[in-house]
Amino acid sequence: MVKRVLLAAPRGYCAGVDRAVVTVEKALALYGAPVYVRKQIVHNVHVVASLEAKGVIFVDETDEVPEGKTVVFSAHGVAPSVHAEAATRNLKTIDATCPLVTKVHHEVRRFAREDAEILLIGHHGHEEVEGTAGEALDQVRVIDGLDGARTVVPTPGKKLVWLSQTTLSVDETLAAVAILRERFPEIQDPPSDDICYATQNRQEAIKAIAGKADLVIVVGSQNSSNSVRLAEVALEYGAKAAHLVDYAQEIQEHWLDGVETVGLTSGASVPEILVDGVLAWLAQRGFDDVETVTAMQESLLFSLPPELRKDMKAAGQS
User: d(Cα 264, Cα 104) in Å, to the nearest integer?
Assistant: First the structure.
C-alpha cells in the first residue's frame, strides 16, 4: 500500500493573522510585559499559549485592564462601544483588527447611514459578528445558517442589504444569499465580496484534495470558524473522513486504518510549526511521500497598526 500525504497550499497564516500576532510581539518588545489583549488575538490555542508565556495577558473585556495601560484589540474587530469604554479608562489602544474585517465595518456604517436594514450572514456569538453588528445594532440582523435565511422577517419598507462574516464557507454563504434573493429580490449586494481571500483560497485548496483523500486532517482550533469550515468543506467535497486537531498528538491511530492518502491543511490562524508536527507524526507511520497541491499563490501583506508604527518610529525601531 502506497502511503502519501497531499499537502494543501495555501494553508496556515493569512496576512491579517500574521499582522495581529506580529503586532502583539512588537508591542511586547516596545512597551514590555505585560501587554493586555482583549479576547484571543487569533483563534488558536498554540498562539495564545505562546504569547501568554511571553507576558501577554488576555482579558474578556477592557474593564479588566488596569487604567492607563495598553490594550490590543484582536484581529476579529470590536464594536465602537469597546473603543468608547477604553477611552473612558484612559487605555492606550492598538487596533489589530484585520483590514478585511474593517472593510465590512465600513460597509455597515455606510448602509446604516442610508437607513438600510443589514442582514449579516454569520454565527451568533462569534467575536467578529459581535464587533461588526456593533457598528449599527439597531439596523443589523444576524442570519445564522440557511434556516436563518429562510425565517428572517425584515422590517417592512426598509431597504435591504446583505453582508457576511469574513471566515464562513463560501458555498454556504452563497446558498444563504440565494435564499435571501429568492425571498427578497430587491436585496442589495455588498460593494465587494466579504469572504476574505485567505478563507476562499484555503477552501479551494482543500476542495482540490478532498476527493482523493481517505482522511483529511485540518490543523486548527475548535473556536476557529475558518478551520471548522475547512473540515466541513473536505467532507462535502469527497473526503471519506475529516478531523480537526490542534496538535499532532491529538490524532487517533485508528483514523489511519485502511488509509492510503491523507489530505493535510491548516486554518488561517495556525503557525506552520504545527503542520510540521503533523507531517512528522505521519512520517513515523509510513506517510512520508508528501505532495504539495497548490490552488493559488498568495502575496498579500498588511502594514502594522498606525498607532504602533508611530511609537516604533519614535523609539527608533522598525
Answer: 30
Q: Which residues contact 254 (CB under 8 A, 6 or more apart)?
A: none
Give the H/E segment covering residue 56: strand 56-59
The whole-chain average pLDDT of the chain stands at: 96
pTM: 0.95
125: left (phi over 0), alpha (psi -120 to 50) or beta: left
Rounded Cα distance between 90 and 289, Å, is 56
Alpha carbon of 22 to those of 18, 131, 227: distances in Å?
6, 22, 21
Q: What is the pLDDT of residues 132-154, one digit of tens each?
A: 999 999 999 999 999 999 999 99
What pLDDT is stored for residue 249 in this prediction? 98
d(CA 285, CA 283): 5
Distance between CA atoms of residues 294 and 50, nearest Å: 29
Active site amino acids: 128
Say what the pLDDT of residue 311 is: 93
Phi and psi (nearest 5°) for 243?
-135, 145
Order across the sheet with 160-164: list the strands.
140-143, 117-121, 160-164
State how far the Cα of 43 lies from the Cα of 37, in Å rounded to an integer: 13
Number of helices (H) and strands (E), helices first, in the chain? 11, 12
Q: Residue 229 corresponds to which cell in the numbers above?
A: 469550515
